[in-house]
Structures are given as C-alpha cells and as structure tokens.
Specification:
Protein name: 40S ribosomal protein S24
Number of strands: 4
Structural class: alpha+beta
Number of helices: 5
Keywords: Ribonucleoprotein, Ribosomal protein
CATH class of the largest domain: Alpha Beta
Strand content: 15-25%
CATH topology of the largest domain: Alpha-Beta Plaits
Radius of gyration: 20 Å
Distance between the termini: 46 Å
Order of helices and strands: EEHEEHHHH
Strand order of the largest sheet: 1-2-4-3
CATH architecture of the largest domain: 2-Layer Sandwich
InterPro entries: eRP_eS24_sf, Ribosomal_eS24, Ribosomal_eS24_CS, Ribosomal_uL23/eL15/eS24_sf
Oligomer: single chain
GO molecular function: mRNA binding; structural constituent of ribosome
Pfam families: Ribosomal_S24e
Length: 138
C-alpha cells in the first residue's frame, strides 16, 4: 500500500441482500488530491470496517469517478466466506479477483467454432458448440 490512505468512505447499505451470506453496498469514496483509490485499498478498508477475516470475500466493482475528481462511487459485495463468494459471484469477477483462472483458448479454435456456427441455424448451434467441446475433452 502506498503511504497512509487519505480517503473516506460512506457506504449505503441496500436493504434487500441477494442472499443471507451477502452484504450489498453502494460505496462513496472521497479522495481529494488523488486521481482514484485502488480496489485493493478499498477491499482492505472494508475488511477493517466490517471485520471480515478474508479480504478475498470482498468484491468491489463499477467505480466511476465524478466529474472534477475527488469522489468516486461504486458497488461492494461482502460475503461471509470465500466459498459463498465462489458460489454466487460470476466467473469473470472471480477471475479478476484471483479466485479462478481464465481458460486460454487459441485464436484459431475460436475462429473455427465461429465459422462452424455460421453454417448452422437455431438451437442446433448450441448443440454443435457443445459437441465440439465434448469431442475435445476426450
């Protein structure tokens, strides 16, 4: 972390959480004199405020800096445990937070699949894609 953190946060709790294991918040961050605050710093501060054992159970996203700077607003999800986070969070957010790995596909495979799908119409497209995946797993 770079020096002392000189920003204040004002979370607004949204009354109806998605699950009992989740706390949803809209977070206002005041950061005068700084362009923005890193997500890692925000996660650490939220972990201290809400006494979360593992900062990996906190997800912050969709932060937008207000015109003129000095203030940002975004969302935060605080889960009871990392297992619950893995259960409910979308895969792309898990990958961004380092809890999952991205499957690397070659450019050629993606193009071949796209071109095969162009020749088929309707529901058969998904079946053709699934068959291609099943054939490569064996």
């Amino acid at each position: 972390m770079v020096g002392p953190v000189n920003h204040s946060m004002g979370p607004w709790e949204i009354p109806k959480p998605m699950t009992r294991e989740t706390k949803i918040q809209v977070i206002d961050v005041l950061h005068p004199g700084r362009p923005n605050v890193s997500k890692a710093e925000l996660k650490e501060k939220l972990a201290r405020i809400y006494e979360v054992k593992d900062p990996n159970a906190i997800f912050v996203f969709k932060f937008r800096t207000h015109f003129g700077g000095g203030k940002s607003t975004g969302f935060g999800l605080i889960y009871d445990s990392v297992e619950n986070a893995k259960k409910y969070e979308p895969k792309y957010r898990l990958i961004r937070n380092g809890l999952d790995t991205k499957v690397e596909k070659s450019r050629k495979q993606m193009k071949e699949r796209k071109n095969r799908a162009k020749k088929i119409r309707g529901v058969k497209k998904t079946k053709a894609g699934d068959a291609a995946k099943a054939g490569k797993k064996k």
